[in-house]
Design goal:
Length: 481
Amino acid sequence: MAKASSKQITPKSEDFDRWYVDVIRRAELADYTPVAGCMVIRPYGFALWENTQRALDDMIKRTGHQNMQFPLFIPESLLVKEAEHVEGFAPEVAWVTQGGSEQLHERLAVRPTSETIICELYRKWIHSWRDLPVLINQWANVVRWEKRTRLFLRTTEFWWQEGHTFHETWEQARDEVDTMLGCYRELAEEWLAMPVIAGRKTASEKFAGAEYTLSIEAMMSDGWALQTGTSHHLGQNFTRAYDISYSGRDNTLLFPFQTSWGLSTRIIGGVIMAHGDDAGLILPPRVAPVQVIVVPIAQSGDAGGPVEEAAVRLEREAPSGVRLRVDRRDGIRPGEKYADWELRGVPLRVVVGARDLAEGRVTVVRRVDGEQQQLPLEGVAARLPGMLDEAQAAIRARAQRLLDERSVEVTDLDGLRQAFEVQPVFASGPFCDSPECELAVKQAVHALTVRVLRADRRPDGAPCLGCGRPADHVALFARAY
Ligand SMILES: [Zn+2]
Protein backbone atom coordinates (compact mmCIF):
# COMPACT_ATOMS: atom_id res chain seq x y z
CA MET A 1 0.00 0.00 0.00
CA ALA A 2 1.35 3.40 -0.97
CA LYS A 3 1.68 6.13 1.59
CA ALA A 4 -1.26 8.44 1.47
CA SER A 5 -2.59 11.14 3.68
CA SER A 6 -5.76 13.14 3.81
CA LYS A 7 -3.71 16.28 3.15
CA GLN A 8 -3.72 15.27 -0.50
CA ILE A 9 -7.50 15.32 -0.76
CA THR A 10 -9.30 18.43 -1.95
CA PRO A 11 -11.89 19.35 0.71
CA LYS A 12 -15.41 18.36 -0.26
CA SER A 13 -16.80 21.82 0.43
CA GLU A 14 -14.19 23.41 -1.82
CA ASP A 15 -14.68 21.26 -4.93
CA PHE A 16 -16.93 18.21 -4.76
CA ASP A 17 -15.82 16.83 -8.15
CA ARG A 18 -12.13 17.03 -7.32
CA TRP A 19 -12.76 15.59 -3.88
CA TYR A 20 -14.53 12.63 -5.51
CA VAL A 21 -11.67 11.86 -7.88
CA ASP A 22 -9.02 12.45 -5.18
CA VAL A 23 -10.71 10.00 -2.81
CA ILE A 24 -11.06 7.29 -5.46
CA ARG A 25 -7.43 7.55 -6.52
CA ARG A 26 -5.82 8.03 -3.08
CA ALA A 27 -7.89 5.25 -1.54
CA GLU A 28 -6.84 3.06 -4.47
CA LEU A 29 -10.38 2.14 -5.51
CA ALA A 30 -9.87 2.83 -9.20
CA ASP A 31 -7.81 4.88 -11.64
CA TYR A 32 -7.68 6.14 -15.19
CA THR A 33 -6.06 3.98 -17.87
CA PRO A 34 -4.36 4.53 -21.24
CA VAL A 35 -7.74 3.59 -22.78
CA ALA A 36 -9.83 6.74 -23.05
CA GLY A 37 -12.99 6.52 -20.96
CA CYS A 38 -12.10 3.15 -19.44
CA MET A 39 -11.19 2.73 -15.80
CA VAL A 40 -9.26 0.11 -13.90
CA ILE A 41 -10.83 -1.09 -10.67
CA ARG A 42 -8.03 -1.75 -8.19
CA PRO A 43 -8.13 -4.56 -5.60
CA TYR A 44 -9.59 -2.44 -2.77
CA GLY A 45 -12.32 -1.11 -5.06
CA PHE A 46 -12.96 -4.52 -6.52
CA ALA A 47 -13.34 -6.06 -3.05
CA LEU A 48 -15.97 -3.40 -2.32
CA TRP A 49 -17.76 -4.26 -5.59
CA GLU A 50 -17.49 -8.00 -4.87
CA ASN A 51 -19.12 -7.60 -1.46
CA THR A 52 -21.91 -5.56 -3.04
CA GLN A 53 -22.21 -8.04 -5.88
CA ARG A 54 -22.40 -11.02 -3.53
CA ALA A 55 -25.23 -9.46 -1.54
CA LEU A 56 -27.21 -8.75 -4.71
CA ASP A 57 -26.41 -12.12 -6.26
CA ASP A 58 -27.85 -13.82 -3.17
CA MET A 59 -31.06 -11.80 -3.60
CA ILE A 60 -31.23 -12.63 -7.31
CA LYS A 61 -30.99 -16.33 -6.52
CA ARG A 62 -33.32 -16.07 -3.52
CA THR A 63 -36.00 -14.70 -5.87
CA GLY A 64 -35.67 -17.69 -8.20
CA HIS A 65 -33.23 -16.54 -10.89
CA GLN A 66 -30.24 -18.39 -12.34
CA ASN A 67 -27.03 -16.93 -13.70
CA MET A 68 -25.78 -17.56 -17.21
CA GLN A 69 -23.40 -15.96 -19.70
CA PHE A 70 -24.05 -14.52 -23.18
CA PRO A 71 -21.57 -13.44 -25.89
CA LEU A 72 -19.79 -10.10 -25.76
CA PHE A 73 -20.63 -9.39 -29.43
CA ILE A 74 -24.00 -8.84 -31.07
CA PRO A 75 -24.38 -9.01 -34.88
CA GLU A 76 -25.74 -5.78 -36.34
CA SER A 77 -28.75 -7.50 -37.91
CA LEU A 78 -29.89 -8.57 -34.42
CA LEU A 79 -29.38 -5.22 -32.77
CA VAL A 80 -31.57 -3.32 -35.23
CA LYS A 81 -34.74 -5.41 -34.91
CA GLU A 82 -36.42 -3.39 -32.14
CA ALA A 83 -36.65 0.12 -33.60
CA GLU A 84 -36.89 2.22 -30.43
CA HIS A 85 -34.13 0.19 -28.80
CA VAL A 86 -31.64 0.63 -31.64
CA GLU A 87 -32.44 4.33 -31.91
CA GLY A 88 -31.80 4.76 -28.19
CA PHE A 89 -28.49 2.93 -28.16
CA ALA A 90 -27.08 3.65 -31.63
CA PRO A 91 -25.09 6.76 -30.61
CA GLU A 92 -23.14 4.81 -27.96
CA VAL A 93 -22.44 1.48 -29.67
CA ALA A 94 -18.85 0.38 -30.32
CA TRP A 95 -18.41 -1.74 -33.45
CA VAL A 96 -15.98 -4.47 -34.44
CA THR A 97 -15.39 -4.42 -38.21
CA GLN A 98 -12.31 -6.56 -38.52
CA GLY A 99 -11.15 -9.91 -37.07
CA GLY A 100 -7.42 -10.51 -37.41
CA SER A 101 -6.63 -9.34 -40.93
CA GLU A 102 -10.10 -10.19 -42.22
CA GLN A 103 -12.81 -7.62 -42.86
CA LEU A 104 -16.11 -8.88 -41.33
CA HIS A 105 -19.05 -9.11 -43.73
CA GLU A 106 -21.36 -8.14 -40.88
CA ARG A 107 -20.08 -5.80 -38.19
CA LEU A 108 -20.44 -6.81 -34.55
CA ALA A 109 -21.60 -4.54 -31.75
CA VAL A 110 -19.80 -4.78 -28.43
CA ARG A 111 -22.84 -5.35 -26.21
CA PRO A 112 -24.31 -2.16 -24.75
CA THR A 113 -26.94 -4.42 -23.09
CA SER A 114 -28.07 -7.92 -24.07
CA GLU A 115 -31.84 -7.91 -24.72
CA THR A 116 -31.36 -8.50 -28.44
CA ILE A 117 -29.09 -11.54 -28.32
CA ILE A 118 -31.08 -12.99 -25.44
CA CYS A 119 -34.29 -12.68 -27.46
CA GLU A 120 -32.67 -14.32 -30.46
CA LEU A 121 -31.61 -17.31 -28.35
CA TYR A 122 -34.81 -17.66 -26.36
CA ARG A 123 -36.74 -17.60 -29.64
CA LYS A 124 -35.25 -21.06 -30.12
CA TRP A 125 -35.84 -22.21 -26.54
CA ILE A 126 -39.35 -20.99 -25.69
CA HIS A 127 -42.01 -23.14 -27.36
CA SER A 128 -44.74 -23.79 -24.84
CA TRP A 129 -46.31 -22.10 -21.82
CA ARG A 130 -44.50 -24.81 -19.85
CA ASP A 131 -41.19 -23.11 -20.77
CA LEU A 132 -42.27 -20.00 -18.83
CA PRO A 133 -41.34 -18.16 -16.77
CA VAL A 134 -37.72 -17.76 -17.81
CA LEU A 135 -35.78 -16.12 -14.97
CA ILE A 136 -32.13 -15.46 -15.78
CA ASN A 137 -29.32 -13.05 -14.94
CA GLN A 138 -25.89 -12.27 -16.30
CA TRP A 139 -22.91 -10.59 -14.55
CA ALA A 140 -20.90 -8.94 -17.30
CA ASN A 141 -19.08 -5.93 -18.66
CA VAL A 142 -20.77 -3.78 -21.26
CA VAL A 143 -19.60 -0.90 -23.46
CA ARG A 144 -21.35 2.39 -24.14
CA TRP A 145 -19.25 4.99 -25.92
CA GLU A 146 -19.27 8.00 -23.60
CA LYS A 147 -17.91 11.41 -24.48
CA ARG A 148 -17.65 12.67 -20.93
CA THR A 149 -16.59 10.11 -18.37
CA ARG A 150 -16.32 10.02 -14.58
CA LEU A 151 -14.79 7.19 -12.56
CA PHE A 152 -17.49 4.65 -11.59
CA LEU A 153 -20.37 6.98 -12.58
CA ARG A 154 -19.97 7.06 -16.33
CA THR A 155 -17.30 5.03 -18.08
CA THR A 156 -17.22 3.60 -21.57
CA GLU A 157 -16.82 0.09 -20.20
CA PHE A 158 -18.58 -0.80 -16.96
CA TRP A 159 -19.53 -3.87 -14.98
CA TRP A 160 -23.07 -4.83 -14.04
CA GLN A 161 -25.68 -7.48 -13.82
CA GLU A 162 -28.53 -7.62 -16.30
CA GLY A 163 -31.55 -9.72 -15.45
CA HIS A 164 -33.90 -10.90 -18.19
CA THR A 165 -37.21 -12.65 -17.74
CA PHE A 166 -40.14 -13.88 -19.84
CA HIS A 167 -43.65 -14.42 -18.50
CA GLU A 168 -47.10 -15.56 -19.61
CA THR A 169 -48.98 -12.47 -18.47
CA TRP A 170 -48.47 -8.71 -18.28
CA GLU A 171 -49.23 -8.83 -14.56
CA GLN A 172 -46.57 -11.44 -13.87
CA ALA A 173 -44.02 -9.24 -15.63
CA ARG A 174 -45.22 -6.25 -13.58
CA ASP A 175 -44.72 -8.22 -10.35
CA GLU A 176 -41.22 -9.24 -11.48
CA VAL A 177 -40.32 -5.60 -12.18
CA ASP A 178 -41.53 -4.69 -8.67
CA THR A 179 -39.71 -7.61 -7.02
CA MET A 180 -36.37 -6.72 -8.55
CA LEU A 181 -36.72 -3.03 -7.77
CA GLY A 182 -37.38 -4.21 -4.21
CA CYS A 183 -34.08 -6.13 -4.25
CA TYR A 184 -32.25 -3.01 -5.45
CA ARG A 185 -33.87 -1.01 -2.68
CA GLU A 186 -32.83 -3.63 -0.12
CA LEU A 187 -29.26 -3.54 -1.43
CA ALA A 188 -29.10 0.26 -1.37
CA GLU A 189 -30.71 0.72 2.02
CA GLU A 190 -29.78 -2.35 4.06
CA TRP A 191 -26.30 -2.97 2.68
CA LEU A 192 -25.07 0.35 1.32
CA ALA A 193 -26.88 2.51 3.93
CA MET A 194 -28.32 4.78 1.22
CA PRO A 195 -32.00 5.66 1.65
CA VAL A 196 -33.66 5.77 -1.77
CA ILE A 197 -36.82 7.07 -3.42
CA ALA A 198 -38.50 4.68 -5.82
CA GLY A 199 -40.83 5.41 -8.70
CA ARG A 200 -41.52 5.36 -12.41
CA LYS A 201 -39.46 7.22 -15.01
CA THR A 202 -41.17 9.65 -17.39
CA ALA A 203 -41.48 8.60 -21.04
CA SER A 204 -38.39 10.62 -22.00
CA GLU A 205 -36.25 8.94 -19.34
CA LYS A 206 -37.40 5.34 -19.70
CA PHE A 207 -35.29 2.52 -21.17
CA ALA A 208 -35.30 2.48 -24.98
CA GLY A 209 -37.85 -0.17 -25.93
CA ALA A 210 -39.56 -0.45 -22.54
CA GLU A 211 -43.24 0.04 -21.74
CA TYR A 212 -42.14 1.64 -18.51
CA THR A 213 -39.06 1.87 -16.27
CA LEU A 214 -38.88 1.94 -12.48
CA SER A 215 -35.84 3.27 -10.69
CA ILE A 216 -34.43 4.06 -7.28
CA GLU A 217 -32.81 7.43 -6.66
CA ALA A 218 -30.36 8.12 -3.85
CA MET A 219 -29.26 11.53 -2.56
CA MET A 220 -25.54 12.23 -2.72
CA SER A 221 -24.05 14.41 0.01
CA ASP A 222 -24.03 17.44 -2.33
CA GLY A 223 -27.80 17.15 -2.76
CA TRP A 224 -27.63 15.70 -6.28
CA ALA A 225 -29.44 12.50 -7.20
CA LEU A 226 -27.94 9.26 -8.42
CA GLN A 227 -30.06 6.66 -10.19
CA THR A 228 -28.76 3.47 -8.63
CA GLY A 229 -30.84 0.70 -10.20
CA THR A 230 -33.50 0.31 -12.89
CA SER A 231 -36.14 -2.32 -13.64
CA HIS A 232 -38.02 -2.33 -16.95
CA HIS A 233 -41.34 -3.74 -18.12
CA LEU A 234 -40.71 -4.49 -21.79
CA GLY A 235 -44.24 -5.66 -22.54
CA GLN A 236 -44.22 -7.60 -25.82
CA ASN A 237 -42.10 -5.01 -27.67
CA PHE A 238 -39.08 -7.26 -28.06
CA THR A 239 -40.82 -10.62 -28.12
CA ARG A 240 -42.92 -9.47 -31.11
CA ALA A 241 -39.93 -7.88 -32.88
CA TYR A 242 -37.85 -11.03 -32.36
CA ASP A 243 -40.78 -13.35 -32.99
CA ILE A 244 -40.62 -15.26 -29.71
CA SER A 245 -43.94 -17.06 -29.76
CA TYR A 246 -45.20 -20.04 -27.79
CA SER A 247 -48.31 -22.15 -27.66
CA GLY A 248 -50.45 -21.09 -24.73
CA ARG A 249 -52.57 -23.13 -22.35
CA ASP A 250 -55.40 -23.13 -24.93
CA ASN A 251 -53.00 -23.93 -27.80
CA THR A 252 -53.15 -20.43 -29.31
CA LEU A 253 -49.91 -18.80 -30.41
CA LEU A 254 -48.85 -16.09 -27.96
CA PHE A 255 -45.98 -13.66 -27.30
CA PRO A 256 -44.50 -13.67 -23.80
CA PHE A 257 -44.15 -10.55 -21.68
CA GLN A 258 -40.61 -9.59 -20.82
CA THR A 259 -38.64 -7.66 -18.20
CA SER A 260 -35.04 -6.60 -17.77
CA TRP A 261 -33.29 -4.99 -14.82
CA GLY A 262 -29.76 -3.81 -14.14
CA LEU A 263 -27.45 -2.46 -11.49
CA SER A 264 -23.85 -1.47 -12.19
CA THR A 265 -20.51 -0.41 -10.69
CA ARG A 266 -22.04 3.08 -10.77
CA ILE A 267 -23.50 2.30 -7.34
CA ILE A 268 -19.94 2.30 -5.92
CA GLY A 269 -19.74 5.95 -6.98
CA GLY A 270 -22.95 6.39 -5.01
CA VAL A 271 -21.46 4.89 -1.85
CA ILE A 272 -18.49 7.24 -2.14
CA MET A 273 -20.56 10.38 -2.73
CA ALA A 274 -23.36 9.57 -0.29
CA HIS A 275 -21.18 8.92 2.75
CA GLY A 276 -17.62 10.22 2.32
CA ASP A 277 -16.16 13.27 4.10
CA ASP A 278 -13.05 15.47 3.94
CA ALA A 279 -10.90 12.66 5.38
CA GLY A 280 -12.00 10.21 2.68
CA LEU A 281 -14.36 7.26 2.33
CA ILE A 282 -16.90 6.17 4.90
CA LEU A 283 -17.81 2.59 4.05
CA PRO A 284 -20.85 0.78 5.38
CA PRO A 285 -19.53 -2.20 7.40
CA ARG A 286 -21.64 -4.76 5.55
CA VAL A 287 -19.67 -4.16 2.32
CA ALA A 288 -16.38 -2.73 3.65
CA PRO A 289 -13.40 -4.84 2.46
CA VAL A 290 -11.76 -4.24 5.86
CA GLN A 291 -14.22 -3.75 8.72
CA VAL A 292 -11.82 -3.45 11.62
CA ILE A 293 -8.26 -2.19 11.45
CA VAL A 294 -6.06 -2.89 14.46
CA VAL A 295 -3.19 -0.45 14.91
CA PRO A 296 -0.61 -1.69 17.42
CA ILE A 297 1.51 1.10 18.85
CA ALA A 298 4.67 -0.76 19.68
CA GLN A 299 7.68 0.88 21.29
CA SER A 300 11.00 0.20 19.55
CA GLY A 301 12.51 -3.09 20.61
CA ASP A 302 9.07 -4.20 21.72
CA ALA A 303 8.60 -6.94 19.11
CA GLY A 304 6.70 -9.88 20.52
CA GLY A 305 5.78 -7.83 23.59
CA PRO A 306 2.33 -7.32 25.11
CA VAL A 307 1.16 -5.00 22.32
CA GLU A 308 1.84 -7.61 19.65
CA GLU A 309 0.35 -10.30 21.88
CA ALA A 310 -2.86 -8.29 22.16
CA ALA A 311 -2.99 -7.80 18.37
CA VAL A 312 -2.57 -11.52 17.80
CA ARG A 313 -5.28 -12.19 20.36
CA LEU A 314 -7.70 -9.88 18.52
CA GLU A 315 -6.96 -11.65 15.24
CA ARG A 316 -7.56 -15.01 16.88
CA GLU A 317 -10.68 -14.06 18.82
CA ALA A 318 -12.47 -12.02 16.14
CA PRO A 319 -15.67 -13.92 15.30
CA SER A 320 -15.60 -15.54 11.87
CA GLY A 321 -17.09 -13.23 9.28
CA VAL A 322 -15.50 -10.12 10.81
CA ARG A 323 -13.02 -8.74 8.28
CA LEU A 324 -10.22 -7.67 10.65
CA ARG A 325 -6.70 -6.70 9.73
CA VAL A 326 -3.66 -5.66 11.78
CA ASP A 327 -1.52 -2.83 10.42
CA ARG A 328 2.02 -4.02 11.21
CA ARG A 329 3.79 -1.74 8.73
CA ASP A 330 7.17 -0.57 10.03
CA GLY A 331 8.44 2.96 9.94
CA ILE A 332 5.03 4.63 9.66
CA ARG A 333 3.82 6.79 12.51
CA PRO A 334 0.48 5.86 14.14
CA GLY A 335 -1.05 9.16 13.02
CA GLU A 336 -0.24 8.36 9.42
CA LYS A 337 -1.75 4.90 9.77
CA TYR A 338 -4.93 6.41 11.23
CA ALA A 339 -5.20 8.81 8.29
CA ASP A 340 -4.62 5.98 5.81
CA TRP A 341 -7.45 3.86 7.17
CA GLU A 342 -9.74 6.84 7.56
CA LEU A 343 -9.11 7.61 3.90
CA ARG A 344 -10.08 4.03 3.10
CA GLY A 345 -13.25 4.34 5.15
CA VAL A 346 -12.63 1.40 7.49
CA PRO A 347 -15.60 1.44 9.92
CA LEU A 348 -13.73 0.66 13.17
CA ARG A 349 -10.17 1.29 14.32
CA VAL A 350 -8.84 -0.53 17.36
CA VAL A 351 -5.76 1.15 18.83
CA VAL A 352 -3.60 -1.10 20.98
CA GLY A 353 -1.13 1.01 22.97
CA ALA A 354 1.20 0.01 25.78
CA ARG A 355 -0.25 2.48 28.31
CA ASP A 356 -3.89 1.44 27.72
CA LEU A 357 -2.86 -2.18 27.73
CA ALA A 358 -1.25 -1.85 31.15
CA GLU A 359 -4.80 -1.20 32.37
CA GLY A 360 -6.15 -4.03 30.22
CA ARG A 361 -7.80 -1.69 27.73
CA VAL A 362 -7.88 -0.79 24.05
CA THR A 363 -9.41 2.21 22.28
CA VAL A 364 -12.05 1.72 19.58
CA VAL A 365 -12.73 4.62 17.20
CA ARG A 366 -15.71 4.73 14.86
CA ARG A 367 -15.07 6.21 11.41
CA VAL A 368 -18.50 7.69 10.73
CA ASP A 369 -18.52 10.10 13.70
CA GLY A 370 -15.14 9.70 15.41
CA GLU A 371 -16.81 8.31 18.52
CA GLN A 372 -14.17 6.80 20.85
CA GLN A 373 -14.60 4.11 23.46
CA GLN A 374 -12.10 2.64 25.87
CA LEU A 375 -12.96 -1.01 26.27
CA PRO A 376 -11.43 -3.94 28.14
CA LEU A 377 -9.30 -6.08 25.82
CA GLU A 378 -11.01 -9.02 27.44
CA GLY A 379 -14.15 -9.68 25.40
CA VAL A 380 -13.70 -6.80 22.94
CA ALA A 381 -13.38 -9.13 19.94
CA ALA A 382 -16.77 -10.69 20.66
CA ARG A 383 -18.34 -7.23 20.73
CA LEU A 384 -17.11 -6.29 17.23
CA PRO A 385 -20.16 -7.61 15.29
CA GLY A 386 -22.47 -5.54 17.49
CA MET A 387 -20.31 -2.44 17.10
CA LEU A 388 -20.24 -2.94 13.32
CA ASP A 389 -24.04 -3.16 13.26
CA GLU A 390 -24.20 0.10 15.22
CA ALA A 391 -21.79 1.76 12.78
CA GLN A 392 -23.91 0.54 9.87
CA ALA A 393 -27.03 2.04 11.50
CA ALA A 394 -25.22 5.32 12.25
CA ILE A 395 -24.16 5.71 8.60
CA ARG A 396 -27.70 5.01 7.42
CA ALA A 397 -29.19 7.44 9.94
CA ARG A 398 -26.76 10.13 8.86
CA ALA A 399 -27.74 9.67 5.20
CA GLN A 400 -31.43 9.71 6.15
CA ARG A 401 -30.94 12.99 8.08
CA LEU A 402 -29.35 14.58 5.02
CA LEU A 403 -32.23 13.39 2.83
CA ASP A 404 -34.81 14.73 5.30
CA GLU A 405 -33.03 18.08 5.69
CA ARG A 406 -32.69 18.62 1.96
CA SER A 407 -36.15 17.48 0.85
CA VAL A 408 -38.74 20.17 0.11
CA GLU A 409 -42.32 20.31 -1.11
CA VAL A 410 -43.22 22.65 -3.96
CA THR A 411 -46.56 23.58 -5.53
CA ASP A 412 -45.55 25.78 -8.50
CA LEU A 413 -42.59 26.57 -10.76
CA ASP A 414 -41.66 29.67 -8.75
CA GLY A 415 -41.48 27.56 -5.64
CA LEU A 416 -39.30 25.09 -7.53
CA ARG A 417 -36.92 27.89 -8.58
CA GLN A 418 -36.69 29.24 -5.05
CA ALA A 419 -36.03 25.77 -3.65
CA PHE A 420 -32.87 25.50 -5.74
CA GLU A 421 -31.59 29.03 -5.12
CA VAL A 422 -29.73 28.13 -1.93
CA GLN A 423 -28.51 24.59 -2.66
CA PRO A 424 -29.45 21.47 -4.65
CA VAL A 425 -32.38 19.66 -3.04
CA PHE A 426 -34.87 16.88 -3.65
CA ALA A 427 -38.09 18.72 -4.47
CA SER A 428 -41.43 16.94 -4.65
CA GLY A 429 -44.59 18.34 -6.17
CA PRO A 430 -47.81 17.56 -8.04
CA PHE A 431 -47.16 16.68 -11.67
CA CYS A 432 -49.28 15.68 -14.68
CA ASP A 433 -46.51 13.77 -16.50
CA SER A 434 -46.94 15.57 -19.83
CA PRO A 435 -43.86 16.23 -22.01
CA GLU A 436 -44.73 19.96 -21.98
CA CYS A 437 -44.61 20.18 -18.20
CA GLU A 438 -41.42 18.10 -18.08
CA LEU A 439 -39.83 20.66 -20.39
CA ALA A 440 -41.16 23.52 -18.28
CA VAL A 441 -39.51 21.98 -15.22
CA LYS A 442 -36.18 21.53 -17.03
CA GLN A 443 -36.28 25.17 -18.14
CA ALA A 444 -37.25 26.48 -14.70
CA VAL A 445 -34.02 25.39 -13.03
CA HIS A 446 -30.65 24.73 -14.70
CA ALA A 447 -29.88 21.00 -15.10
CA LEU A 448 -33.04 19.96 -13.29
CA THR A 449 -34.75 16.70 -14.25
CA VAL A 450 -37.81 14.74 -13.26
CA ARG A 451 -36.21 11.84 -11.45
CA VAL A 452 -39.27 9.67 -10.84
CA LEU A 453 -43.02 9.75 -10.36
CA ARG A 454 -42.91 8.73 -6.72
CA ALA A 455 -44.29 5.30 -5.88
CA ASP A 456 -44.78 6.23 -2.23
CA ARG A 457 -46.88 9.36 -2.75
CA ARG A 458 -50.33 10.16 -4.16
CA PRO A 459 -51.35 13.73 -5.07
CA ASP A 460 -53.73 15.33 -2.59
CA GLY A 461 -55.80 17.09 -5.26
CA ALA A 462 -53.31 19.90 -5.85
CA PRO A 463 -52.98 20.93 -9.51
CA CYS A 464 -49.88 20.15 -11.64
CA LEU A 465 -47.11 22.63 -10.87
CA GLY A 466 -46.53 23.16 -14.60
CA CYS A 467 -49.95 23.56 -16.19
CA GLY A 468 -52.43 23.73 -13.36
CA ARG A 469 -54.43 20.80 -14.69
CA PRO A 470 -55.25 17.86 -12.40
CA ALA A 471 -52.09 16.01 -11.34
CA ASP A 472 -51.98 12.22 -11.21
CA HIS A 473 -48.54 12.02 -9.64
CA VAL A 474 -46.16 13.45 -7.12
CA ALA A 475 -42.85 13.81 -8.95
CA LEU A 476 -39.34 14.02 -7.55
CA PHE A 477 -37.29 16.82 -9.11
CA ALA A 478 -33.52 16.96 -8.70
CA ARG A 479 -30.22 17.50 -10.42
CA ALA A 480 -28.69 14.16 -11.23
CA TYR A 481 -25.34 12.57 -12.01
ZN1 LIG B 1 -48.81 19.62 -16.14
